[in-house]
Amino acid sequence: MSNESRIHGCTDAKVRQLMRRLTQHYDAEVSRAGLRNSQYSLLSNTARLGPVKPVDLARAMKMTASTLSRNLQPLIEAGWIEVRPGANARSHLVAVTAAGEAKREEALRYWRQAQRSLNTQMGPERVLALHALIDESLELLGPDTGKADPDA
User: Fold this and answer.
1) Residue 79 phi/psi, 5° resolution?
2) How far is CA 39 from the centre of its chain?
3) C-alpha angle with apex 80: 59 to 37, nearest 5 degrees?
4) What digits encode the pLDDT tens for the residues 21-33?
5) Which of 8, 15, 37, 38 is the most buried (most CB within 10 A)?
């Protein structure tokens, strides 16, 4: 029996099941800081990139501009992210506020706990193998075309 004939089910469905379970795992910890893991990720990426154009932040996070805008709104309303004027009248930059940096630091402790817990549950070797498989798969699939928005 060939390997291909042994494949049953939809790879997309399997990956989405894993994504949902991982999201639940990280959200359970990060929510103790009042954030969802996706919000923590957005705060962390914004802090890492510094004041950043929304298009560059969206590109770095592999999401569309509309998804980024939708996900930024609650963080702006909470006072954790601000929109600043850019280089000209038509541009703007997204930046983490002092309150946002404090919230990110708080959530980082819980994110680290989620990572340690996952490493314990799955075993470090399996986590490393999963990371390698994901990286290799992304490379084999080629560049992101930006046509489908998995965060929508």
Assistant:
1) 85, 15
2) 8
3) 60
4) 999 999 999 999 9
5) 37
Q: Cα 46 to chain center, whole Å?
A: 11
Give the integer Cα–Cα distance in Å for 111 and 74.
Answer: 20
What is the total residue count of the chain?
A: 152
Residue 80 has what DSSP assignment? S
Q: What 3-state class would DSSP assign to 125?
A: helix
The DSSP-derived string for 32-60 is GGT--HHHHHHHHHHHHH-SB-HHHHHHH
How many Cα atoms occupy the beta-carbon half-sphere of 77 within 13 Å? Answer: 7
Look at phi and psi of residue 136 and say left if phi exceeds 0, alpha if psi is from -120 to 50, else beta: alpha
- Give tens-digit pLDDT for 52-96: 999 999 999 988 989 999 999 999 999 999 999 888 888 899 999
